[in-house]
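Q: Convert this sequence to structure tokens.
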Amino acid sequence: MKNQYLLLVSALGAVLVSAGCSSLPESTNAVASTQVLPPLSLKPQMFVNLDPATCSVPDGMSVAADGSIILSAPNYIDYEKVGGSKLFRIDKNRNVSIWFDKLTPHPDTGKVHPMGIEFGPDGNLYIADNQYFNDKNYKSRLLRIVVENGKPVRCEVAASGFKLANAVRWHNGKAYVSDTHFDLPGKPNQSGVYAISLDEMKKGEVKLLPNASDPHLVAQYDAKPSADPQAETDGADGVTFDNQGRMYSGRFGDGVISRTTFSASGKPLKQEIIVDDPSINCCDGIVCDRDTNKIYVTNSKRNSIHMYDVDKSTFRIISENGNTTGAGGKLDQPCEPLVIGDELIIVNFDMPFPGMKNTKHDLPIGLSVIKLDK
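A:
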């Protein structure tokens, strides 16, 4: 009788979960409302150089309470040689130091790779730990660095069950985490974004259900089909919110950017494609400057930065360069943007994949900066 009860509960849960996910709005095409403008040629400069002895691959950024920048380094290249992954602190004078280097490795893979990061409303730092390159069987996690008196004290697992956890953004008490690959049978091109409330995570580790069946899923995307079996189908990467509380996410593989409108309670009401243009073939990081309601997008494949003006519905390239080493601050596979005042700070990932301008991992390893006309 007990086993029959458990089977009934399990089946009922699956029905409820399926019903919850099937309520996601279908994506509509609003590309016609976006005007693509001629490109600009803003010149990036060097922001900081990173020590190659401790950092081989930098990725995400977030601003701490004291105004310093916290930078994640998944260090996929020479992981053991550089001492594993780390979090760095860049102060207002651009001095770089190690902020935290005791991230919790996954017990099955023995590694931890911090990607997108953002401080939550509780003052703690939340981290997308991408385990997909180590193990594709739902090993990726959302980690939490507990901060006390401005100092990191320990690392905890806040949520688990992602395939490729990538970006983290907080909005209205919820952490929005992109999952770049769902790897669903018969649907290889799908990805999405999950939303998990702080209140829920306070009760303990949130464990997501597999196969995109979890009710925390608030957006689901389908990459463009391609006749080329080698074509990338990487999906949801960066996540950001505009001044109206609408969520934007871009797909890494094809550069398509979507917008989701939510109800006051956080239920997704409308999902629409706003950018689908040949000028952008990859959307990596994405951030909205709340002062101007302009969204900045890094294009890892093209070594370019793009800007979407929310209020004017315009889109354009603002900076681009060829294959470089990153010397002098030139773009070298840009992956993450951050706006502080009139500065657009950009992380250069410099870990080449097929189809990119960047063909070699080389020195310097650093962050670029572009002055914005605000």
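The chain is about 5% helix and 40% strand.
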